[in-house]
Amino acid sequence: MEDIGFVGTGIMGKSMLRNLKKAGYTMHCYARHPEKVADLAREGVKVHATLADCVEACQVMISIVGYPKDVEEVYFGEDAIFAHARKGAYVIDMTTTSPTLARRLYAEGVKRGLHVMDAPVTGGDTGARNGTLSILVGGDKEDYDRMLPVFRGMGTNINYMGKAGCGQHAKMANQIMIAGAMSGICEALNYAKAEGLNLDTLLAAVSTGAAGSAQLDAFGSKMVHGDYKPGFFLKHFIKDMRIADEEADKAGLTLNVLKQVLGEYLTLEKEGLGNEGTQALYKYYQK
Q1: What is the DSSP string of the chain?
Q2: What pLDDT score does 2 carry?
Q3: Which of 173, 228, 248, 275 is most buried, judging by how many CB atoms fall within 10 Å of its CB?
Q4: pLDDT tens-digit profile of 71-110?
């Protein structure tokens, strides 16, 4: 079994790390604030004082951080992954970031004799805890095949999407779908409320029919009952939608629904709601 290093132990990453430990891997991690991973240390995870030390100890290095700038920080520089990864190591960025950056990571890694993959996930904090994430992988097929047992330690729906960057493109498509679904749910609930329907009864009535969706199951009741605690931060969804919009522009596409929903979320962020969950979009429709 490989020693696996992890950087990015937030809402998603900590659960993913724990599931890999349950699968029998020797787990390592680095965090800028060691107190935030004190629980992992008590559970037998090796916590390193520097990112360099963590990378040097492992055959596989996984990152799942916040923004593209955070990805650049953990991969480039004197104390970063590329400077200290063993030749032949497997390096997997599971952050949702730009396909352009994913291709840049791959090119730099290949120069250094590394196996680099982009493997963003979907399934939220619940999927991370339960080990049921969907994982969208870009990179070399033989690397995907070699790391499949590692991916299976974190998820149940694992798919090879194609060359470097394709995992991120698949995640962008996923986020575009979610944007449309979330706005549709909010609009429908606002309509039903205005017409005097019991919203709990409505959710029970439609959730198993053609209008049912994973987003409705996860967030419909939370919206109705004013639960906006984050399983996925609103501000991070904005980051994803911006990337999708930028990639669409590069391809000469105009994604009108995405642009509308992005604008709605940006309004909420300006109102100080960036740290709430994505279901806080319902607040926009209640105005």
Answers
A1: --EEEEE--STTHHHHHHHHHHTT-EEEEE-SSGGGGHHHHHTT-EEESSHHHHHHT-SEEEE--SSHHHHHHHHSSTTSHHHHPPTT-EEEE-S---HHHHHHHHHHHHHTT-EEEE--EESHHHHHHHT-EEEEEES-HHHHHHHHHHHHTTEEEEEEEESTTHHHHHHHHHHHHHHHHHHHHHHHHHHHHHTT--HHHHHHHHTTSTT--HHHHHHHHHHHTT----SSBHHHHHHHHHHHHHHHHHTT---HHHHHHHHHHHHHHHTT-TTSBGGGHHHHHT-
A2: 84
A3: 228
A4: 999 999 888 999 999 999 999 999 999 999 999 999 999 9
